[in-house]
Amino acid sequence: MQLVLTEEQELLAKTAGDWVREHSPVTRVRQLRDTNDPTGFSRPLWKQMAELGWVGIVFPEQYGGAGMGYADLAVVLEALGRTLAPEPFLSTVLLGGQALLVGGSDAQKKAWLPGLCEGGKLLALAQQEPKSRHDLFRVATRARPDGTGFRLEGEKIQVLDAQVADALLVVARSSGGERDAAGLTLFLVPRDAAGLRVTPQTRIDHRNAALVRLDGVRVGADAVVGAIGQGGALLQQVVDCATVGLCAEMLGATSQVFDDTLHYLKTRIQFGVPIGSFQALKHRAARVFMEIELARSAVMAVARAADAGDADFEKLVSLAKARCSDAFVLAANEAVQMFGGVGMTDEYDVGFYLKRARVAEMTFGDAAWHRERYARLGGY
Amino acid sequence: MADLESFREDVRQWLAANAPKSLVGMTGGDLEGNWGGRKATYPNPDMKRWLELCAARGFTAPEWPREYGGGGLSREETKVLRQELARAKLPPPLIGFGLTMIGPTLLMFGDEEQKKEHLPKICRGEIRWCQGYSEPGAGSDLAGLQTRAVLDGDHYILNGQKIWTSYADLCDWQFCLVRTDPNAKKQEGISFILFDMETPGVSVKPIKLISGSSPFCETFLTDVRVPVKNVVSKVNNGWTVAKALLAHERTMIADAFGSAAGGGKSRGFTALARDYLDFEDGTLADASLRHRIAQVEMDARAFLLTTQRARDAAKAGHAPGTESSIFKVYGTELNQRRLEVMLSIAGPQALGWEGAGFDERELDLTRQWLRSRANTIEGGTSEVQLNIIAKRVLGLPD
Ligand SMILES: Cc1cc2nc3c(=O)[nH]c(=O)nc-3n(C[C@H](O)[C@H](O)[C@H](O)COP(=O)(O)OP(=O)(O)OC[C@H]3O[C@@H](n4cnc5c(N)ncnc54)[C@H](O)[C@@H]3O)c2cc1C
Predict the structure, then answer these.
(1) Nearest chain B CA: its distance from A262 CA (Å)
(2) pLDDT for position B48
(3) What is the pLDDT of residues A79-116, one digit of tens each?
(4) Structural element, H or E, at residue B45
(5) What is the mean pLDDT of residues A21-49?
(6) Domain ranges of chain B
(7) B216 lines ligand 1 (CB under 6 A)
(8) Quick check: B293 and A380 CB within 8 A?
(9) CATH number for the domain running over B129-236
(10) How many CA within 13 A on the CB side of residue B119?
(11) Which end of chain A has fewer CB atoms surrounding its CB within 10 Å, N or C?
(12) Which residues contact B345 (CB under 8 A, 6 or more apart)?
């Protein structure tokens, strides 16, 4: 594994960076929020991202993808993360799309992936529940046999992009107790299925998320994704890969909020000098910088491990997610403090990063949860 | 690549045929390692033979040019050599400031005569070097140093005091910073000069540390006559040379602590934990300690990945990136945290100074911890490193 960008990746980073600066400033996110935009992101831009090959970047060419890897995807997501682009990469490309790619039948893949890679079809993964916190396997939603199919009953929370998805991958328990890893099954359910109710939620970062109620939703046997009762492993794999993408996004956002802070330190004058000349702030800035460098190494390593199918992949996922969570929260907290009063205003962008940091930190397990997992994987 | 593999095969065969069996398993760290020099003692004569065999092949300084006693190897070949030594569990044949600090500096700044005189002796382990930078009044503010060097014909006459000179009592030569122009701006009146510790007027006095050992000394210089030809680079250009050497020093410190943090030399946490702590169903029962261990292990992993990233970037032909600026601060703090956690694991057994009730390993752990507190001071304190990052890397104003 080489922890360095290839020439193609350098080029991709530049293209993505230029594109983001031109098309996706933070003001766009602000506008989506202030206008209560029902879509929550930009469909035309999503289409453009698909045309640039980014939406399908990790999907095989036979489904209209680019057949590239996570190391490439990470470059794109880092660039998009810099300005908090809210497009549905996590929900559609990484969670829903990957679940179908890894676990889906031929028919499911053919039906969904080409449309997805084109920037048309959207997916979501309905996994989290009121009591699950970060535990992927704590699932109370039931799937009861019903004729040749199943009936789904339960409640999901904070499902990313559920309100815009064409279909949801619902994690439900077909057997076993509420905390068992075994007995989980994934179902592909159209959003307009009878008995399925989506209620948008507003979180601090104003990205799409929704409550999903399943009141006896009927699905056929062909809705099962992967093997019945063995969805746990699939879910873990898909969420781990999605975590790689999230980490790349977080790295971009962290780098940007830190760059903004540095700029402010050099330009804000107090006591007749730039505040960046005060050693108390210099040292804190240098410490944030160190954390970002370490996070970058972890992200590069985990993305390459995902591509190579490294045995160490799970540990690296936890390493990267813990680091990116801590680094993002630190950089955002420090940014607000170093901006002083204006850092608390809605007018400045810093607050957007602070809020996104908290949401991203809690998505797919926070730092403490991943340290615990790292310890477990390390045998202690 | 094929060449590299045949090189590996050669090294492997050579090691199998030549490496003394009695050295297998030695780590070659600070305490056990062979520092060489006139005063070196060899309780195990194989250590000396190992040095001579390696020196003859240029393996003590693999990357230096052959004409100065080095091996003339590429960076990749050097890496292979190191891997093969590790694989055979052999210690490096020689360690010390000659190889890591003054040698690379002379290669950059020395004149031909200086290189010819000093480098081969370093490679053969004949001369052990010490570093005369710090003074009682000039630590972090190194450029404020006061030791004077006054020209007298073809000699400089040195007067002053150095402090914290590591291993000065065991060393043969010193590279030293002296003030040659008291009227210039402080950085611009400094010269970098080399002298033999046996020159009349040089005396050293060991200083006892909190760990009980005396690895460093005060060095007193009274009318010490040093030939002008021993000035490295130009007179009054010593600050440039000094900074270049510090970069080598910090790389070395960061490397050492990075590999220690990665579990390089010492036993891992888990093994230690199994000796002292309760496990329930394969999990460490003390949850807070488990998290502290995980934190340090994860920090160490991220740190090692960062050093790898710097190496990979260099290999790919990129200029050194900003990441390398963090190695000294982060690597040393990490080493301290690692030892703090180990102390917590050993609990009351980590409190021994000597004698009954504590075994060798426990006493060694305690001394290592005490020693580690110096890591964030030596070679430029963490605060000074953070100043450098803020200024050079982040571009924050003075
Ligand atoms: C184990 C060990 C081995 C050593 N070996 C050698 C050797 O072989 N040769 C040699 O020449 N020297 C050696 N040193 C000396 C070492 O380089 C100095 O100790 C170091 O540079 C700090 O100087 P000082 O001790 O005078 O501390 P000071 O400079 O007095 O620092 C005291 C405190 O003030 C802080 N401080 C100082 N200036 C600033 C600033 N501008 N901003 C913020 N904080 C600041 C420091 O960070 C530190 O916390 C060694 C030291 C140790 C501990």
Answers:
(1) 7
(2) 95
(3) 999 999 999 999 999 999 999 999 999 999 999 999 99
(4) helix B45-57
(5) 97
(6) 2-123, 129-236, 240-393
(7) yes
(8) yes
(9) 2.40.110.10
(10) 26
(11) N
(12) B269, B272, B273, B276, B277, B289, B293
Span B153-177, average pLDDT: 97
pLDDT digits (tens, 9 = 90+) for A156-185: 999 999 999 999 999 999 999 988 989 999
Distance from the alpha carbon of residue B217 to the mean position of ligand 1, in angstroms: 14
> What is the amino acid identity at position B368?
Q
- pLDDT of B75 > 90? The answer is no
Q: Which superfamily does CATH assign the domain made up of B240-393 to?
A: Butyryl-CoA Dehydrogenase, subunit A, domain 3 (1.20.140.10)
Q: By alpha-carbon position, which residue is closest to atom 40 of ligand 1?
A: B384
Per CB-CB distance under 8 Å, the chain A contacts of B291 are: 368, 371-372, 375
- CB neighbours (10 Å) of residue A43? 13
Q: Can you say how many angstroms the Cα of residue B273 is from the centroid of all Cα atoms in its chain? A: 30
Mutate to test the interface with A, among B276, B284, B306 (most CBs of A within 10 A): B306
- Per DSSP, B33 falls in state S
CATH top-level class for B2-123?
mainly alpha
Contacts (Cβ under 8 Å, ≥6 apart) of A144? A150, A151, A153
Residues of B with CB under 8 A from a CB of A: 269-270, 273, 279, 282-284, 290-291, 293-295, 297-299, 301-303, 305-306, 308-309, 312-313, 315-316, 318, 322-323, 326, 329-330, 383, 386-387, 389-391, 393-398
Q: Which residues of chain A are within 8 Å of residue B391 when distances are taken between CB atoms?
A: 282
Is the pLDDT confidence value at B261 over 70? no
Judge if the beta carbon of residue B165 lies within 6 A of ligand 1: yes
Å between A109 CA and nearest CA of chain B: 36
B347-372 average pLDDT score: 94
Q: What is the ipTM of this complex?
A: 0.95
Chain A residue with minimal CA distance to B303? A294
Distance from CA of B333 to the nearest CA of A (A): 12
pLDDT confidence tier of residue B264, bands split at 50, 70 and 90: very low
Task: Say if B129-236 and B240-393 have the same CATH topology.
Answer: no
HEC readout, A272-323:
CEEHHHCHHHHHHHHHHHHHHHHHHHHHHHHHHHHHHCCCCHHHHHHHHHHH
